[in-house]
Specification:
Blueprint lengths: L1 E6 L7 H13 L4 E9 L13 E7 L31 H13 L4 E4 L2 H10 L5 E6 L8 H11 L4 E4 L2 H10 L6 E4 L18 E5 L8 H14 L4 E5 L5 H10 L6 E5 L5 H4 L4 E4 L8 H7 L5 E4 L5 H4 L6 E4 L4 H13 L1 H14 L5 H17 L1 H27 L1
Helix pairs in contact: 1-13, 2-3, 6-11
Length: 407
């Protein structure tokens, strides 16, 4: 089977890129897999690409590329939705290249990985192929305008796949998609190939973009209480972002000195997680929670806020980690202190986290996708009838409404 993934820019960094590469590699053992990158800005991808996976790009943004002088590059996109956050990075050239590629694509399955690209898939993807829209954000993270645009296009696809069941339920309730399967498949995270953490290091680690929504300020506030009671423990925060300076000021104001450190970017992050005994997340929202799974795959228990939508579907509270209320630094500090003061429990949770993390193995997630593809193929005719029936019902309802207004 030929499977094609459409991605924004496989040459960059980010959770969507990592999980797409993981899944593509897992599928490449039995299928012909291609990743189509809408954009390219450097010579080689930052993440390793399985040699069995073919990578192509549509628009080259490098200075030496002839694409940069193409007049269409400087015209705004007409197909990529204007309400999509990446809209300004797209152009008429991207529209044209996406249309050309998809019209000539002979893949049996085409999977889009972000909203605007899913619109390309709906507009130009061959109806002979199974067309699947992945949603790595959440329904409610999209603006009302974008949701309306997506609803129009998603109705023509075969499936919409979210990363959590909670988000799939929101799509089913708020976006009527007759004949389209809406389901959740978690992101995949491979075995890091490292010896798991032994739970003895006096380190709490955290990772992510340094932006306000990740609430590293809350974590620093909670760790202040930890530091006062356990002077041997340290906090290491990995990542970069617009909130870096504010977080450093907060560390200085709390007189944490070298007890709490902004470590910068680390890739792969698992090499740092195995040096910790606890990983913490204080986010206000997560579409999934890749770092939580990455920590579990290192045998490290996670203390996380019970925010929408991912953590509660990843962590079993009290078994392989802890879930605490959002926005509550005292609850976060208490959960951290509980694990710090009870090493046997910390180690037991670490072992449980390591075992639970295996359900996110790429091979397991690939099997879920293969089962989905078989089901979509088997139900194509029935789903097509559901879609046509809904269309005619809508047409009949609108016609009847117009007739009543005339009367």
């Amino acid at each position: 089977m030929k499977i094609t993934f459409l991605i924004h820019n496989v040459y960059g960094v980010g959770g969507t890129i990592r999980t797409t590469l993981n899944l593509a590699a897992a599928l490449a053992g039995d299928h012909e897999v291609t990743i189509v990158s809408m954009l390219r800005h450097r010579a080689r991808p930052r993440f390793a690409v399985d040699p069995r996976v073919n990578v192509v790009h549509l628009v080259d943004l490098r200075e030496e590329s002839t694409d940069t002088t193409d007049p269409l590059m400087h015209e705004p996109a007409a197909v990529f939705p204007t309400a999509e956050k990446r809209y300004k990075q797209y152009s008429r050239l991207t529209d044209e290249r996406a249309a050309q590629h998809l019209r000539n694509c002979d893949a049996d399955v085409i999977i889009g990985t972000r909203p605007g690209i899913n619109v390309y898939l709906a507009r130009f993807g061959s109806p002979r192929a199974l067309r699947i829209a992945q949603e790595h954000l959440t329904h409610d993270a999209h603006s009302k305008k974008l949701r309306a645009q997506l609803a129009h296009h998603y109705r023509t696809l075969d499936a919409v796949v979210t990363t959590t069941e909670a988000d799939a339920a929101v799509y089913r309730a708020k976006m009527r998609l007759p004949g389209v399967q809406v389901l959740a498949v978690p992101n995949s995270v491979p075995d890091p190939g490292l010896a798991p953490a032994d739970g003895t290091a006096k380190v709490v680690a955290a990772a992510g973009r340094l932006v306000r929504g990740k609430r590293f300020d809350l974590l620093i506030e909670a760790f202040t209480k930890v530091a006062a009671q356990h002077p041997g423990w340290t906090l290491r925060i990995y990542g970069t972002g617009t909130d870096k300076d504010r977080l450093q000021r907060l560390i200085d104001e709390r007189n944490l000195g070298d007890r709490a450190t902004l470590m910068g970017v680390a890739s792969p992050i698992e090499a740092e997680f195995v040096k910790a005994s606890i990983v913490a997340s204080a986010s206000d929202a997560e579409s999934f929670g890749m770092t939580l799974v990455e920590a579990m795959r290192c045998g490290v228990p996670v203390v996380s806020t019970d925010c929408p939508l991912g953590p509660a579907e990843i962590i079993h509270d009290g078994v392989d980690g802890r879930l605490v209320p959002m926005g509550d630094p005292q609850a976060l500090a208490t959960a951290l202190l509980d694990l710090i003061t009870d090493e046997p429990v910390r180690r037991r949770m670490g072992d449980a986290a390591l075992a639970a993390g295996r359900r996110f193995d790429p091979a397991h997630v690939a099997r879920i996708y293969e089962d989905l593809l078989a089901d979509l193929a088997a139900t194509r005719r029935v789903r097509g009838w559901e879609r046509r029936k809904a269309h005619w019902r809508g047409w009949a309802g609108r016609t009847l409404s117009r007739l009543r207004l005339r009367c």
